[in-house]
Design goal:
6-stranded mixed beta sheet; 5-stranded mixed beta sheet; 19 strands; 23% helix; elongated
């Protein structure tokens, strides 16, 4: 996906259909209105970036420490931690119109058990439905170069000091997996249980809007370092029944279809799931569409309930150009008795880097949607993606 003014090297992802409504509904469960916007932004950010990370970079990624802890975290600070391997990445969302600086709450930097290895600045644009990853930094760089703001206890790093291309992070991870990323974090003092109990009772007062700023950081940090005290603080402030009110937002269920070498189609070589159009439409005599003089293949896709009980077909038409580029036309057809595609069904062309380059969306009563034709040089990788709400079918093609 491209956004005016955003360099092509920076990652921009589209917010999935229906995600904003789910995130807003979940955020309203927070007892304190002042925290709901933070919860909303973090949910949108998390559920847009986590599927991309799992599909494109590191399959074994997880929320740190767990899903149940998110609400207590977000009522204290902004940010969501993602664990991959032995590393931790903190997503720091904001709704800023521009990307000037990254501001990270002190807890994510100076608490030994909370600190991350990498910090990713993410702009969330709910109106235009995209998230923009505009730069990242390491814990060590944040400690060395960021300006500490005592008024709100944040570390702020200018955009000029950050690495704007997220792909650099994954290259570094592959080439130098053991490269140090964290600065030395001094241990916090041990908080006596009696002092902790008194502090928990005091901070439970609804008159205190920002408990994190109410006591010295060393004391506050020592309280948060103990998971049971952190949970007790949340329950004291918002009620014992409010701890696990977040329901899991449905993440995209990605069905990755086998890679396809398109040049083999010109030799009449194709996987059995990619059928000739005569075979695919033999029971659909009413279909009459123009076929390419080159290679034409299609495959059926059956959406599970409750999306649709009627099958659809992904059709790919190819023409070989004199300069050996392949001209590609991709379409979705409705095959069921109603001859209509589910409203909101998306057909997307996605680059090798994961950016959505073209999108068409089925309207009410559409029986076919088509991406603009495009040409690919030999060896180019791209994806054709079909999605409806949180269900995604993706195929990688090699031209």
């Amino acid at each position: 996906m491209t956004v005016p003014g955003v360099p092509p090297t920076q990652l921009v992802l589209e917010i999935a259909s229906g995600l904003q409504q789910q995130a807003w509904y979940q955020s309203q469960k927070c007892p304190q209105p002042q925290h709901r916007w933070t919860i909303y932004l973090n949910l949108v950010c998390l559920h847009t970036l986590l599927p991309w990370l799992q599909a494109e970079q590191v399959a074994q990624t997880s929320i740190w420490p767990n899903w149940e802890s998110l609400m207590p975290f977000w009522t204290v600070v902004n940010g969501t931690a993602i664990a991959f391997g032995s590393k931790r990445l903190l997503l720091v969302p904001s709704q800023g119109l521009d990307a000037r600086e990254l501001c990270v709450p002190q807890e994510w930097v100076d608490l030994p058990t909370w600190a991350a290895d990498y910090y990713l600045a993410v702009r969330v644009n709910p109106d235009e439905q995209w998230v923009h990853c505009w730069g990242y930094t390491t814990h060590a760089q944040l400690k060395q170069q960021a300006q500490y703001e005592p008024c709100d206890r944040t570390y702020c790093l200018d955009a000029q000091a950050m690495i704007p291309d997220l792909s650099v992070l994954w290259v570094v991870q592959q080439l130098y997996p053991d490269e140090p990323t964290r600065a030395l974090i001094p241990p916090l003092p041990v908080l006596p249980e009696l002092q902790a109990a008194e502090l928990l009772q005091r901070l439970a007062s609804p008159a205190i809007e920002a408990p994190r700023l109410e006591v010295p950081f060393q004391v506050w940090g020592a309280l948060l370092e103990q998971v049971n005290w952190q949970q007790q603080l949340y329950e004291n402030r918002y009620g014992a029944g409010s701890m696990n009110v977040l329901e899991a937002v449905k993440l995209p269920e990605v069905v990755e279809l086998p890679p396809v070498n398109l040049r083999q189609w010109f030799e009449d070589v194709a996987d059995s799931i990619w059928q000739s159009l005569d075979t695919l439409f033999e029971s659909q005599p009413a279909f009459n569409f123009r076929r390419s003089d080159g290679a034409n293949r299609g495959r059926g896709i059956r959406l599970p309930r409750p999306f649709s009980e009627e099958p659809i077909a992904l059709i790919v038409n190819l023409d070989l150009e004199p300069d050996h580029r392949i001209k590609v036309k991709s379409q979705l057809y409705a095959l069921g008795p109603s001859r209509t595609l589910p409203t909101g069904l998306r057909l997307e062309m996605v680059s090798e880097s994961g950016q959505v380059l073209e999108t068409v969306i089925a309207r009410d009563q559409d029986n076919c949607i088509q991406l603009p034709r495009f040409k690919c040089p030999p060896g180019r990788l791209f994806r054709i993606r079909t999605s409806l709400q949180y269900l995604v079918f993706s195929t990688t093609f090699i031209s």
